[in-house]
């Protein structure tokens, strides 16, 4: 795999930078979606509280606190209709930036790019696709909450029959549910974001591989962040540094999974095929006159 040659570490750093500006608007749209379809209040708590609980379990208390502050400071309150339209447009544009960056990076890894003559159309399509991905995250969170509610009811029933068994079973089921949701997210990313056609079998294989790496890496990153003194060294900015580190390592795992998917499609399928509005990139080294002279002298 060409993980180093494709500059995946550099692209991971770029994604971490974009995330700082996009995570607030992104989560705000997810919360709106969750509240619209599931209701403003979920089992005694608000949609925002449910999302922040998920963020706390995934990122930890320091990072989730930073995200919550960003959400509280993000407001669309305005006196004019024009201001509302501009605010909504800015919100959508900012929130979709992360997914557009992921799309561009996977395109580079898979060796494809959009056709130059259709850049303006591709720009609009990219933003709509990214917005759809954000709404999809909201739907996955809704499904997760619904399944968790059903599981809690069943566990309470089984706990009356076999006391003490529900907690361990609930933890195992939640871990399995988390793995399934993460696999679906990676599958959607590999399927819909890049400008390529890939077989479902290759996407499933790549998504499963990436999810396994992500689950393992998540615990490794959590341990590293707990033992690392980065947060205390940077004071108030420590939470931002932790978020950058978390997204950086997670992005590296995602791009490594994209490399695996590319190689999997080459070995077991027809490789990566660009869509009708994209082209394949072929890189070749061109010898200069100086190189030719050196070879002649040798």
Structural summary, described in words:
The protein has 10 helices and 6 strands. With 298 residues, it is mainly alpha-helical. The two termini are 33 Å apart.
Count of individual helical segments? 10
Query: Could you tell me the number of beta strands?
Result: 6
Largest sheet: 2 strands, antiparallel
End-to-end Cα distance, whole Å, is 33 Å
Low-confidence runs of at least 5 consecutive residues:
none
Q: Could you give the order of strands across the largest sheet?
A: 1-2
Helix-strand pattern = HEEHHHEHHEHHHEEH
What's this, in brief?
By secondary structure, the chain is mainly α. The chain is built from ten helices and six strands, in the order αββαααβααβαααββα.
Quick tags:
single chain, 298 residues, mainly alpha, two-stranded antiparallel ribbon, two-stranded antiparallel sheet, 77% helix
Helix and strand arrangement:
Elements: H1 8-38, E1 41-42, E2 45-46, H2 47-59, H3 61-73, H4 81-110, E3 112-114, H5 119-161, H6 166-192, E4 196-197, H7 200-227, H8 230-233, H9 238-268, E5 273-274, E6 278-280, H10 289-297
Antiparallel strand pairs: 1-2, 3-6, 4-5
Helix pairs in contact: 1-3, 1-4, 1-5, 1-9, 2-3, 3-9, 4-5, 4-9, 5-6, 6-7, 7-9
